[in-house]
């Protein structure tokens, strides 16, 4: 999740923010496609950076969804897994919402003009998702340490 935040910062801050426009603007040319292609030629560094960020976001989502499916059964069997499952579920929901905000940013943009308030919302969504994801293991440890103390 932290790497995805770094990739997003790379997209928005490199080349004076011009990498935001590397995949064009509007629907479907900029999102879900890049320059009107699902697999664009990586002819310039801006497109490469955009695609690395997008692929990173998809990989994070895949890991989140697979983890949720795996933990779904375990949370019923192990009561102490429930807080971790809930944090993972919230992380997945926030990830998906932020994916849609990132898409809206590209779809709503015009050539040379980007809606900065959506960019800020996308950044806040990414940071919020990271905070929830980072706090999940901590909540799990706290819940298991409380169980260990009550057993003694």
Structural summary, described in words:
- There is one protein chain.
- The protein is mainly alpha-helical and 152 residues long.
- The protein has one domain (2-147).
- Helix content is 71%, strand content 0%.
- Helix 1 (2-13) runs antiparallel to helix 2 (45-77), helix 1 packs antiparallel against helix 4 and helix 2 (45-77) runs antiparallel to helix 3.
- The chain is elongated, with a radius of gyration of 19 Å.
- The two termini are 36 Å apart.
Cα distance spanning the termini: 36 Å
Helix content: over 70%
What count of structural domains? 1
* Number of contiguous helices: 4
The string of secondary-structure elements, in order, is: HHHH
Name the shape in a single word. Answer: elongated
Unreliable stretches covering 5 or more consecutive residues: none
Overall pLDDT confidence: 85
Approximately what portion of the residues adopt beta-strand conformation? under 5%
Report Rg: 19 Å
What's the total number of strands?
A: 0
Structural class: mainly alpha
Major sheet attributes: none
């Amino acid at each position: 999740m932290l790497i995805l935040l770094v990739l997003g910062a790379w997209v928005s801050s490199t080349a004076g923010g011009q990498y935001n426009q590397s995949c064009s603007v509007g629907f479907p040319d900029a999102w879900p496609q890049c320059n009107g292609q699902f697999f664009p030629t990586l002819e310039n560094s801006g497109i490469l950076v955009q695609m690395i960020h997008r692929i990173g976001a998809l990989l994070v989502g895949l890991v989140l969804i697979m983890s949720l499916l795996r933990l779904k059964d375990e949370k019923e069997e192990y009561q102490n897994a429930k807080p971790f499952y809930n944090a993972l579920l919230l992380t997945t929901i926030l990830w998906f919402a932020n994916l849609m905000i990132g898409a809206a940013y590209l779809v709503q943009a015009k050539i040379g003009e980007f809606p900065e308030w959506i960019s800020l919302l996308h950044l806040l969504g990414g940071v919020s998702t990271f905070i929830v994801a980072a706090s999940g293991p901590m909540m799990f440890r706290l819940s298991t340490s409380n169980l260990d103390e009550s057993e003694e």
